[in-house]
Design a protein that fits this description.
With 84 residues, the chain is mainly α. The protein contains 4 helices and no strands.
């Protein structure tokens, strides 16, 4: 079971790095929960591959810094669609 989790964590990390994707996007792509993706990338990956862990950490930090912007854009689209 541990090998499967290690392989999954690495696949998730590589996908996130290649596509500059969010946790939500990775979860949707792989059909697993956001909490599983987050735990794999922030806790388990550190044990298996430090290099991938650091690259993913940079993407997660960037996504966290930009999340308020994405939320505002989503709200703007929502109200724009309601008016149309």
């Amino acid at each position: 079971m541990t090998d499967y989790i290690q392989e999954r964590a690495c696949r998730l990390a590589v996908y996130m790095i290649e596509h500059r994707e969010t946790v939500r996007g990775v979860a949707k792509k792989f059909g697993i929960s956001k909490s599983t993706v987050h735990k794999d990338l922030t806790q388990r990956l550190r044990q298996y591959d430090k290099g991938l862990y650091q690259q993913v950490g940079a993407i997660l930090a960037c996504n966290k810094a930009e999340r308020h912007i994405r939320g505002g854009e989503a709200t703007r689209r929502k109200y724009k669609e309601e008016q149309a």
